[in-house]
Design goal:
Elements: E1 7-10, H1 16-27, E2 31-34, H2 39-51, E3 55-58, H3 66-80, E4 85-88, E5 96-97, E6 106-107, H4 116-144, E7 147-152, H5 156-159, H6 166-186, E8 191-198, H7 204-210, H8 215-224, H9 233-244, E9 255-258
Parallel strand pairs: 1-2, 1-4, 2-3, 4-7, 7-8, 8-9
Antiparallel strand pairs: 5-6
Helix pairs in contact: 1-9, 3-4, 4-6
Amino acid sequence: MALEGKVAIVTGASQGIGKAVALEMARQGASVVLNARAVGPLEKVASEVASFGGSSLVAAADVTVKEQIDRMVEATIDRFGRIDVLVNNAGGGLRRPGGEGDPRRQLIPKVDEVDEADWDATVALNLKAAFLCAKAVLPHMKRQGKGTIINISSKAGRAGGQVTAAPYASAKAGLGGLSRQIARDMGPLGITCNTVAPGIVMTERFAAGWALLPEARRQELMAEIPLRRGGTPEEIAAVICFLASDGAGYINGTTIDVNGGWFMAP
């Protein structure tokens, strides 16, 4: 198995892409530290991991809070003795209810409509959290002389958001810069860092919002994707798991688009 013996922390592991990554890493032999804010959903993922003989540790924490991250990392070292992989997946965008006469619909605020508090909260979750988690695991990776960090960005970070707002797009763009700086600073120590940029991925959370978009808008967005479909969490997870494997050991500081070619849309 490609990840046999590795220890991986996956943030945002209770649902969507993070859950798919955690399950696939466990299937490939990794011991997976499952992180999100709420314990209950993580315990369900841990039960799935156990059902096929995998190894996991539930580590609920708010990854925007340094002290909670430090406790998560300490628990990982206490349980497994090392950290080989960090997947910074936790994140989320800003939407507001209302629109087109239907309170269920979600409005995406323009730049001049974004509140400072919304900006701060979104950037903290999508960018600052990745920095804090990386900073917490790097001493252990440096001691090992090896490790990899994978930051989950977005097509919005490369071309601006069409179904997301400015704080999210800005933070996701920042993740690419953070990845390249980590790759440059830590590469001489045997530590790699890369970015994955999904587009439309039909997670349960995304699908719920997608269903509220007007049909014409959904068709417009799909027409921009050369493959004419959204991705699945499992398709994103497959790329992330490869980047976590020794087979990707010479990939460093790059961004891999896993969005059906949507990044090429005008």
